[in-house]
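Q: You know discrete backbone vocabularies at least as well as I do. I have my own habits and do not want them to colour yours. No explanation is needed for now; the record alone will do.
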Amino acid sequence: MIIMALNCGSSSVKYQLFDWQTKEVVAKGMVERVIVGDSFILHEVPGRDNYRHDQNCANHQAAIDLLIKTVTDPVHGVLKSVDEISAVGHRVVHGGEKFTCSVMIDAKVLEAVKEVQHLAPLHNPPNIEGIEAAQALMPTVPHVAIFDTAFHQTMPEHAYIYPLPYEWYEKYQVRRYGFHGTSHLYVSKRAAALLGKSSKDTNIVTMHIGNGVSHCAIRHGISVDTSMGLTPLEGAVMGTRCGDIDPAIPAFMMQEEGLSAKEIDSILNKKSGIIGITGRFTDRRDVIENANAGDKLCKLALEIEAYRLKKYIGSYMAAVGKLDAVVFTAGVGEMGALIREKAIEGLEHIGIILDRERNNSAMTRKRETLITTDDSPVKVYVIPTDEELVFTEDVVAILNGTYTDHMNFEYSFAKADFVRK
């Protein structure tokens, strides 16, 4: 059984093919610069050299058509025909309040996703285009939606309702939703397994840190709070997003600079955060390199990011009660030893004792690593995320009729003997 995972962004299509029998990734890749021009596919197969092919893709259907031709190519592919694909799992960023778990896509589901696309105007439209394109190219294959927001639908009302006119929630669904749900789900269950405990018996703070950043307070295995809100703009400092700020600032700057609502939204989402402070960089490796060379703004950006991370650990510790572990994941979380160190140093008083040698050695996206001392009351792990495995297991379980919500479903990676291939 071959399961395809698809993640369609505004100008890219990421894919992975997973063989359920052997529990191995047989191919993965990305079509980049979809719509914008000079498109190309980068195709990776274990044990082979990476393959790149340049071909313009005017839309997502053209991009998915290209990836299907690539994975079935006699020389570079891994499948004899598209008929070998048993099902497709689609990442959908925003499911609103309508979806609390992954679902088989039918006309009603697709219409419901379209009804909430105004809540994620940068993300849901390309997700929808990808679903429709894949359905057109693979009409006999089951398609499943996996929602970024679903994991956080366990949040209590007092955590997701904003102190705004309540009719805004009633009329426009203005509330906290949260994102990166599949990542928080995966690493929290892996952390529980590493602790030798059931996820229902653990309290964990998960920190997904990449260009986008979100944190999650997990009590007894479920999300009770998360840093992103109605949109992915709220929360931590990110590569290009500001995160938490005084809400009066946008109106103030619109007045001072004569900016429109669209312009200020673009600045907060695309020109703030790390690039806003440094004026040049979003990649933390560049920031660290230039900070070490004496760039004051790069030093400041590192200090601001780490300070915000530390504050979230403290506040979420208050939210979950006795804390078992903190988990760092995603690109920066997995590779950014200096940022991790700055975020957790000085937290001995709340039970976090950093082992700097362990932390500095945790610079790989392939190994799960404990970075606190053996006697640290609260453990801190670096755990590479695997959202595609969540996609795959949800899809297979739905096909088999064994799927339930994430609180009761038994994922393979939640088991103590799980080995990531």
